[in-house]
Queue: 2 jobs
Job 1
Amino acid sequence: MKIRANKIDIEIEDSGPGSASISDALGPERPVVLLIMGLGMQLVAWPPEFVQALVDAGYRVIRLDNRDVGLSHHFDALGKPNLIWQSLKYKLGLTPRAPYGMDDMAADAIGVLDALGVKQAHVLGVSLGGMIAQRVALAAPDRVLSLTSVMSSSGAKGLPQARPEVIRALLKRPAGSSAQAVADHYVKLFQVIGSPAFPTPEPDMRERILLGVERGYYPVGTLRQMLAIMADTARAAELPRITAPTLVVHGKADPLVPFAHGEDTARRIAGARLVGVEGMGHDLPPVVVERLLAVLLPHLAAADVRSSPHPNPLPAGAGMNTTMP
């Protein structure tokens, strides 16, 4: 479903009132969870079992295609950025020039809530989506019931970079323009960045990748999103202003965004809880989804209690750092 948000068209999926997958017994006032995907990824990249678990727990789940990916607005008029030149400026300590910023992408997410008449939501993002979620919590603290940042980063300077083999995989391009050639490329990439302890079978991975490729493959939009990441140099210093109850989940085996990025994010946000997952890389295979849900659902429930008119004390463990096997 396409809606108008922040003056552009945004594609969303909403499990809200009237959905056949929702029991009438849950009522119309179910708390909302807004899910924000990562770099170049579409709303269909969310594992169905993850979305369904949230629905079954009593939440209204809203997913969106970020600007410049999938079926949302493509900024063709902004042209193809010179990523090599902008990356060089970034390495030299200069701020790259981005066609739009992370604050614009956060405004899109807030605009989705506005268009749907949602006053407050739990905001969860993975990778780039986690950065956008952080920006949402900074821009509209009164709209955010809780923040969950998964396999993401504070954007602080000096954090460890991706492993060399990951950089090489990222720099490669598909061997052709067919859906199968593009899928071959991304299968190889996700095999490099994925969870070493929980590898996704290649047929399953290929099926999910093809779904996105055939739905809305638009690589130039990914380049513009990447520039928005590099240009967001002030976010790390602003994170201490976040007041929403925050959960940070990060794989201890993440080869693309190393665990130190999650540690730094949690350190900068007062009261944030950091959960490190052994063997988790930069993806959401079924075992990781189970571990994420195990900490996410209590986090959401505690925030729901906290936002109620007569909140009870937060459960033990809030603000602690833990590791999951």
Job 2
Amino acid sequence: METNFTKTFQWILDDRYRVLFHILFWAVIYVDELFSFIGITEPITSSMLVFGLTFLIDLILVYTTLYVSIPKLLFQGKTKAFFFSTLGLLLLCSAATVYLVDLSPYADECYECEPFTKREIASIFMQTCVYTGTVLTSAMGIKIFKEFTRNLQTVSELRSSSLEHELAYLKEQINPHFLFNALNNIYVQTRKRPEEAPESILLLSDLLRYQLYDSAQKKVRLDGEIEYLKNYLKLDKLRKSEEGNVTFTVNGYPGGHLVAPFIFLPFVENALKHGSIGENSFLKIQFDISETEIKFTVGNSKLSIPHQAEQGGIGLPNVKRRLDLLYPEKHKVIVNETSTSYETVLNLVV
């Protein structure tokens, strides 16, 4: 919502149009005088000197408030000082305007008119205060709205920057986490089946190349992520002496979608870590892809003895946080658990 708002009113913050905005503001305020100067309406005053001086008074009132009182008092929390100083300046400028227009030697003369009474002068003064106050509050409203928009944009940029840093941090966590597991697996393999270790190292090299280069963008191709998961499963298969029933199914065309990198990997890691091993064990990975949605399902058989939770794990908490940041209100995680199996379903709207 903040981003849409600031985009809508971005033009008001563009300093290239600053002078134009000020000219338009005063043109609207003095539209009657402008029409009288070009002959469309009757002249409001016959004295250009009076008009120039009253315009100068309005300039002093408005720009003193905009560039002195508001930033030095109002935005500094000195509301009482701002109120009374602005009110005093308004009354002073209104009194000066009344004097110039109606009471000074430069005022338009009316030989048949009686001199103004005190009550009439008070009435004219009040009317002038209302008019001058309208001009001032209009300028103040524009100034405050502009500052509000600028502050909202700053908050939006800071929030976006904070999210970018957090996402980068979460993504970087994946690499050492995966590398630690893979190297540990290869170490075990070198002791039990050393002849297969070179193939595992080459496979790990391909996976790291994808992590370092192919996944450097904010979004990656879905088919690249699927290929990465398949290679990951191959690497995991090489370290195991016992094999279960592993199925990997892709329904739909993955090449047309972009997703956040490594958004599916923690679910697969979790299934491999907590799943059972043996002849009757299974691991099921399935992608159901449509034009607007990706359904990712991971199911595995459970260990007969529950796996002891490891301290400091970053896989699933990591991916859940990334999903909240990258797919707000566009993802859903469903967990189905029985006594013998565990299934996680991730729905992404893309």
